[in-house]
Amino acid sequence: MGSSSDRMLTCFLCVFFLSAVAFADGSHDRTQFGHDITIGTGEEATDVTCFACSVRVRGRVDSDVTTFGGSVVVEDEGEVGGDTTTFAGDVRLENGAKANDITVFGGRFRRDPSASVGGDITNFSGSVWLFLIFGLPLAILGAFIALIVWLVRRLMRPPMPITA
User: Fold this and answer.
1) Which of 68, 83, 96, 105 sits most deeply, having the most CB atoms within 10 A of its CB?
2) pLDDT tens digit sequence for 143-156
3) Whole-angstrom Cα distance, residue 164 to residue 121?
4) What is the dihedral of CA 132, 133, 139, 142, to 10 degrees?
5) How far apart are CA 112 and CA 135, in angstroms?
């Protein structure tokens, strides 16, 4: 029989190699800041998130596609298995494209007649929704900070002498 250190080394090596295999086939998430993402024909991704850029799907996205300040285009025979969500961007489904739930804040939704949506479509078009989601909370926070500054200045002001 081998010593306990040999067994520990063997266990460590097994765990190391199994975890290396797991990471090699790991997540196919795609996240970008300012650079468009394209999921090519025959390519698969798990989750796709894009900040200040757009997403073009020609292959398959197994889970969600989310853009902030960019659009989503699902091209011919492209498929999104999860939710498609855009903030300040459009969603366009072209010929034969497939998608599930679609949510558009501050943009437009366009769909080819041969494209299919397997869930709900929620479209809050126009910039009013963007203001309500992002601008109004910031305006309230700004007003709250202004109130605090005003109160601190008022409390720190020396009292005015009364003259008769």
Assistant:
1) 105
2) 999 999 999 988 88
3) 72
4) 170
5) 33
